[in-house]
Amino acid sequence: MSSYPHDVWTETAESPREQSAAIRVLVAEPDTASRRLICSILQSEPDVKLQCIDNSQLISSIQECDPDLVIMDIHASETRRASDWEDLGIKSPAATILTTYDSTSVTPSTSASAELLIKPLNVEQLQLAVEAARFKVLRARSELETYERSNDPD
After folding, report:
1. Which residues of the chain have pLDDT under 50?
2. What's the pLDDT score for residue 112?
3. Which residues of 103-137 are buried (b: 16+ CB within 10 A; e: fewer)?
4. Residue 52: beta bridge partners?
5. Which class for 66: exposed (0-12), middle (13-18), buried (19 or more C-beta within 10 A)?
6. pTM of the full predicted structure?
7. CA distance 115 to 9
8. What local confidence, expressed as pLDDT, does residue 86 receive?
9. How far is CA 34 from the centre of its chain?
C-alpha cells in the first residue's frame, strides 16, 4: 500500500514561467483524515505545487522547500516553543493556515497572523481559507516585485 498523501512536491506539466508562478504549499497535518481532505482539495488546483507530510518533518521541509503557504496543526511539536517563524530560524511564509480541534489553544500572536480552521474540517471553510491565503501570497509577491523594481539600478 502506498503512502498517502504525497511526501514530495506534486509536479505539474507547466512551463518554467508558469511553475515559478505556482503557489508552493506545504501541508503538515498529523490527522490523516484532515491531511487527506486538504491535499485532495489542493491537488485539484492548477496553480498549486503541493507537498503533504505528517508534520514530523515540518521544520526541515519548510527550510528545504520555501513554501508560500504552510497549513499545519497548531500543536506541531517542533513549533510549540516559538512565537513566530523567525524564532525557529525560518523565513516566514507569505501565508499560514492553522488547524486545531480546540480554538482556545490559540495564542494572540498566532491568531493575528494566520487563518484558523477548527477540525473536523469543513470543505467550504477550507476553500475560503485557501483563497484568503492565495490572496496573501499574490500580494506578497507583488510587493516584493515592486520593491525589487524600485531598487534596480537600471
Report:
1. 1-19, 109, 111
2. 53
3. eeebeeebeeebbbbeeebeeeebeebbeebbebb
4. 27
5. exposed
6. 0.80
7. 23
8. 79
9. 14
Closest CA to 126 of 10, 35, 31, 22: 35
- According to the 3-state scheme, what is the secondary structure of 93-131? CCEEEEEECCHHHCCHHHHHHCEEEECCCCHHHHHHHHH
d(CA 83, CA 151): 32
Q: What's the pLDDT at 48?
A: 94
- Predicted local distance difference test score (pLDDT) of residue 11: 43
Question: What is the per-residue pLDDT across 36-72, written as a single tens digit (0 to 9) for each?
Answer: 999 999 998 989 999 998 777 888 899 899 999 999 9
